[in-house]
């Protein structure tokens, strides 16, 4: 198929628009050499970044005596398995359900956001149609509005839909984001050459086919970053799930919240729960960390 | 296959499919007409189909709830009793005189100031540090952004323990230096500091990377000529680096303001309820909204607070858009 040939050559051009017109190329001369003080300062910041995570793990692998002990424990202990069982069996937290639900919610919303936002972003960047600019302005003006703050009307709506306590309540409202549309639109503007779309047209591709086999591959770098951000955001969603989901069918954040309400002094229990809620994100970080850094630094976030 | 652009092909018509060629003449023609019709239909309506999911979902779960919020805020409304009558602007009249609302607004803005000033300053210095010839550059960047990729509620639990009055590590360290421990939850300023530390821990690296990107775009000859003029490094930082990244700083401040108006998770976990301490010393506006709506079953008033949060965020968002378009047109 002739469609694929231009696609591959697009991937071969220096990886999208952001690297090519990045102004840093104009900066001349070598960077200033880093001295030992620089390394010391950076190491301190690293320590500050990692310490709370490390401490979480230390307490989660020990009992509650690790907290009261003086001087405090420094190394992880051997009680992690016991704490895990205790946390999973805790009736207030419902952790197994919470973890499963969070995985479902974060994955579904991520796939959906990336798909629908790339469709809309492509249309707004590359297709000509009436009302395009007005719609784009509408998105830019509303993308900062937090739907999460509309707790009251959303609760009334969810009762009308009979979705209260149901996962649909925390998935469906978050299946698209204005930020995602805008971000992918900005990327498509430069990252998808008009010639490719034209030639697909000439070849007789429908618009959706053009999107699927040409635009989607070209948008991939930006879609990965959007995917990471969306996954993190929905994994972390707090105010709306605790408003609409009951303790029987929680997300992991709701589980943590319920533990925190009832077991404020059982730190081993809470820290193990906290570890559960953090580990999947750390996994995302290990796999996609570099892409995320690239996305933040290339201005993907700024749109 | 290489396609030559503008070589006389009509983009709307599909090329004949080779395998279908032996078909009779009229059939072929009909088929082509149908295909061109389909092509025109596709060109005309596909854009709307592509944007439809976004606008449909955003309409139902974005625009409508916002407007509905305002409608609810004009009523006495409770979850249990439902709508109980039109109240006009009574909820807003009450809000203006409600000491709890002003207290929550003060806390929200106070925590913002306590958090943002050190956060931006440290991020600037840190970005400047990372903008050097570094070994293990990727490693340091990963380390800096690590907190951004964690669960907010989970880390609030950890920080809540670190800031504990009796067994918190921070008080333990203070005491080991011969200082008095601080009651982080009951003292207003101390509670603001504790929450600000949680926010800064999470966002420091994010802002650092954004500043680093901006700093990499500064032409280096600026520094060279400044060095020739005998400007010290600190002076170069304040007189070249900071002015050059000022638009980026403004951007991060606006984003942070919008996020701050919704501050909820950290203080809720920190206080283990929605009150934010015995005297509401660290209750934010989002917490007050949640408390009124969810715990006190006061939907109308909760909606009024939501609406005020929207209005404030809209103001910041408009500033944001104006500001960014001004930067865009300037460059």
Please give the count of helices of chain A: 15
Instruction: Give the radius of gyration of chain B.
Output: 29 Å
| Percentage of residues in helical conformation of chain A | 55-70%
| Alpha-carbon distance between the two ends of chain B | 40 Å
Number of extended strands of chain B: 2
The assigned CATH architecture of the domain at 101-250 and 279-297 in chain A is: Orthogonal Bundle
Beta fraction of chain B: under 5%
Main sheet of chain A, how many strands, which sense, barrel? none
Number of strands of chain A: 0
What is the radius of gyration of chain A?
24 Å
Percent of residues in β-strands of chain A: under 5%
The total of helices of chain B stands at 13
Explain this structure.
The complex is a heterodimer of chains A (303) and B (331). With 303 residues, chain A is an all-alpha fold. Chain A has helices at residues 4-12, 16-20, 36-60, 65-68, 80-89, 95-126, 132-142, 151-161, 168-171, 178-191, 194-202, 207-236, 239-244, 252-262, 267-297. Chain A has a domain at 101-250 and 279-297: MetI-like fold (Orthogonal Bundle), CATH 1.10.3720.10. In chain A, helix 1 packs across helix 12 (207-236) and helix 6 crosses helix 14. Chain A starts with a helix and ends in a 6-residue tail after the last helix. Mean pLDDT of chain A is 84; it is low at 1-26. Chain B is mainly α and 331 residues long. Chain B has 2 domains: 1-52, no CATH class; 92-330, MetI-like (MetI-like fold). Chain B has helices spanning 25-73, 90-97, 99-130, 137-145, 152-162, 169-176, 188-216, 221-228, 233-244, 246-260, 265-271, 285-295, 299-330, and strands at 75-78, 82-86. Chain B is flat. At the A-B interface, helix 3, helix 6, helix 7, helix 8 and helix 11 of A face helix 1, helix 3, helix 4, helix 5 and helix 7 of B.
Summarize this structure as a short list of keywords or feature phrases.
heterodimer; A: 303 residues; mainly alpha; MetI-like fold; disordered N terminus; B: 331 residues; 2 domains; 13 helices
């Amino acid at each position: 198929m002739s469609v694929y040939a231009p696609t591959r050559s697009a991937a071969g051009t220096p990886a999208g628009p952001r690297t090519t017109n990045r102004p840093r190329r104009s900066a001349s001369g070598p960077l200033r050499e880093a001295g030992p003080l620089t390394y010391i300062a950076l190491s301190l910041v690293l320590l500050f970044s990692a310490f709370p995570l490390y401490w979480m793990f230390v307490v989660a692998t020990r009992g509650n005596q690790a907290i009261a002990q003086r001087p405090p424990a420094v190394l992880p202990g051997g009680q992690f398995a016991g704490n895990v069982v205790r946390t999973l069996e805790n009736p207030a937290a419902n952790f197994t359900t919470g973890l499963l639900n969070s995985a479902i919610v974060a994955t579904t919303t991520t796939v959906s956001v990336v798909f629908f936002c790339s469709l809309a972003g492509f249309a707004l960047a590359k297709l000509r149609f009436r009302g395009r600019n007005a719609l784009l302005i509408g998105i830019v003006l509303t993308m900062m509005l937090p739907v999460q703050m509309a707790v009251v009307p959303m609760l009334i709506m969810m009762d009308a839909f009979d979705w209260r306590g149901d996962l649909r309540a925390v998935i469906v409202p978050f299946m698209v984001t204005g930020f995602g549309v805008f971000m992918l639109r900005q990327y498509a503007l430069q990252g998808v050459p008009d010639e490719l779309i034209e030639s697909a047209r000439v070849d007789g591709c429908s618009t959706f086919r053009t999107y699927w086999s040409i635009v989607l591959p070209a948008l991939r770098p930006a879609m990965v970053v959007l995917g990471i951000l969306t996954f993190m955001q929905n994994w972390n969603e707090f105010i709306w799930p605790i408003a609409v989901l009951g303790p029987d069918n929680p997300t992991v954040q709701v589980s943590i919240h319920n533990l925190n309400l009832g077991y404020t002094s059982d730190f081993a229990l809470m820290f193990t729960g906290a570890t559960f809620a953090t580990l999947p994100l750390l996994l995302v970080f290990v796999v996609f960390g570099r892409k995320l850094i690239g996305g933040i630094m290339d201005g993907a976030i700024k749109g | 296959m290489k396609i030559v652009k503008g070589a006389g092909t009509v983009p709307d018509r599909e090329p004949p499919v080779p395998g279908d060629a032996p078909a009779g003449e009229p059939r072929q023609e009909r088929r082509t007409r149908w295909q061109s019709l389909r092509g025109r239909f596709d060109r005309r309506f596909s854009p709307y189909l592509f944007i439809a999911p976004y606008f449909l979902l955003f309409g139902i779960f974005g625009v409508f709830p916002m407007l509905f919020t305002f409608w609810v805020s004009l009523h006495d409304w409770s979850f249990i009793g439902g709508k109980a009558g039109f109240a006009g602007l009574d909820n807003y009249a009450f809000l203006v005189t409600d000491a709890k609302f002003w207290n929550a607004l003060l806390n929200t803005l106070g925590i913002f100031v306590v958090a943002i000033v050190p956060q931006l300053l440290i991020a600037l210095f840190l970005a400047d540090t990372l903008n050097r010839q570094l070994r293990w550059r990727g490693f340091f960047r990963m380390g800096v952004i690590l907190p951004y990729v964690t669960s907010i509620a989970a880390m609030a639990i950890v920080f809540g323990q670190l800031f504990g009055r009796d067994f918190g590590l921070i008080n333990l360290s203070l005491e080991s230096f011969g200082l008095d421990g601080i009651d982080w939850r009951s003292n207003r300023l101390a509670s603001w500091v504790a929450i600000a530390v949680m926010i800064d821990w999470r966002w420091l690296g994010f802002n650092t990377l954004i500043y680093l990107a901006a700093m990499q775009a500064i032409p280096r000859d600026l520094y060279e000529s400044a060095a020739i003029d005998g400007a010290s490094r600190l002076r170069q930082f304040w007189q070249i680096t900071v002015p050059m990244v000022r638009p980026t700083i403004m951007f991060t401040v606006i984003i942070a303001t919008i996020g701050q108006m919704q501050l909820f998770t950290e203080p809720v976990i920190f206080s283990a309820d929605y009150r934010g301490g015995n005297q509401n010393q660290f209750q934010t506006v989002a917490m007050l909204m949640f408390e009124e709506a969810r715990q006190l079953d006061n939907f109308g008033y909760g909606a009024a607070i939501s609406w005020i949060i929207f209005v404030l965020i809209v103001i910041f968002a408009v500033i944001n858009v104006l500001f960014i378009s001004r930067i865009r047109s300037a460059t």
